[in-house]
Design a protein that fits this description.
- This is ATP synthase I.
- Keywords: Membrane, Transmembrane, Transmembrane helix.
- It comes from Streptomyces siamensis.
- This protein is mainly α and 145 residues long.
- The chain contains four helices and no strands.
- α1 packs antiparallel against α2, α2 runs antiparallel to α3 and α2 runs parallel beside α4.
- The N and C termini lie far apart (50 Å).
Length: 145
Amino acid sequence: MPSNDARILLQAAVPTAAVGAVAAVVSGVVAGGKGAIGAVVATLVVILFMGLGLYVLQRTAKSLPHLFQAMGLLLYTAQILLLFVFVAAFKNTSLFNPKAFALTLVATTLVWIGAQARAHMKAKILYVEPDSSKGDKPEKSGHSS
């Protein structure tokens, strides 16, 4: 993974994990041990889904740049739908507190999206690849007197 991609992943995952830790503590206080477990599971699900999505999106950008925007929209839509599926699947579970799970899932998803947007805005990513095969001398453009 190139350094820009790793940096963006790190800048999105760290705030998400921090919010997940805070949510685990708050859920543990409010809903007990099952609330803390639900918050931890939700945080791990968001980091896994969003991290894999970012990886797939970066691979698409490198190999199929003309599909990048469409792939991004499709990927984010699929991620949100999968997160809703997780909420629906674990709605009546007794493994952890479903409310703590759902609230943490929403909060960490919003934090991930915001942190990733901020990381992309602050990253200095070239949108034009410099061509090094032509050499360092610029071509003459204009008439010489």
